[in-house]
User: Fold this.
Amino acid sequence: MPTLRLRDDLSGIPDYKPGKAVAASAESGAVEVFKISSNENPYPPLPSVAAAVAARIDGINRYPETAATELTAMLCERFAVEPVNIVLGSGSVEVVSQLIRATAGEGDEVLFAWRSFEAYPMLVRAAGATPVPVPLTAEHGHDLDAMLAAITPRTRLILVCNPNNPTGTTLGHSELDTFVAQVPSDIVVVIDEAYVQFNLREDSPSGIEFFRRYPNVAVAHTFSKAYGLAGLRVGYAIAPAPLAGALRKVALPFGVTALAQTAAVASLLAEEELGERVDALIAERERVVAAATAQGWRLPESEANFLWLPLGEHTSAAAALLEEHGLLVRPFAGEGLRASIAETEANDRLLVAIAALVELGLTGGLVQRAA
Ligand SMILES: *Cc1c(COP(=O)(O)O)cnc(C)c1O
Assistant:
């Protein structure tokens, strides 16, 4: 077999690690396993959304409408922007990919906090550009001063994840404003708001408002998390017109299926109902945090639908123990693990499991007083 001539720079990209499949670790007759590793919405689709998708199935022999007129119009009304400012993608991960490929190529740098969304460095490398990860603060949040200091003449894009995945930490309005004001205006700043609906922080910056005030700011939103459409793949950017035009040039053709468009439209029509689910998940988050705190845990404050346990060297052992409790979480060996807030039963089980971590002393120093 001849050696295939592949791109040399791809060898630096780690293989994608999918979240563990439930079936793989569920032993026959064992307790139900909860996959709380991908921050999915635990609720099944709303009946109105499921019905709209079912009704659309008849047309799937046709290509989807690239302009997604109906969905785009609804988003424009919702955010008071023009169609020219909206670019859809196959999930906001594709939107982030568009943003990277529209701004950065070989030799260019893309800046982001680290640890943050796992896809960032992969997508940057896939575009042939250079990822520049800037370590988080000791409080697990963006170190905006360090990010400013990391800007070079090769910087083309800065990704700001608020709330940050996987730490759940947030930025305040004035700190983000101070930051963006100091970024050279020819560098695009993206505010990735995948978890914005779960963020109750009072002085939270609004990505859309930043988009309105700064000609170099774009926002990325997704229907995967709060809207519960992770399986259908639809997200969007709200971007200044010249940038949006460039995003369309690099977008995957027909990347947003007709079913995804239909489900997104139906979801926007059902926002009140979906909002109740978001409220319930936030209430569950608060309940779990209060109970964990009562156990002695001191966790980074999360404004997302997941919690970050920076367990350091205890991470892998803790993840294995959680798995024994039927919980599949997302561990980052040596750093910490992320657990999604999910069904009440899964959340209850998480509390039992982390109490067991306290018993075993697998707390990474996060428990300040014995329970
Ligand atoms: C989940 C997530 C996304 C988007 O996911 P899609 O399913 O591709 O829309 C984007 N950014 C962050 C930080 C996420 O956690």
Remarks:
- The chain has two domains: 8-45+272-360, 58-269.
- The chain has a mean pLDDT of 95.
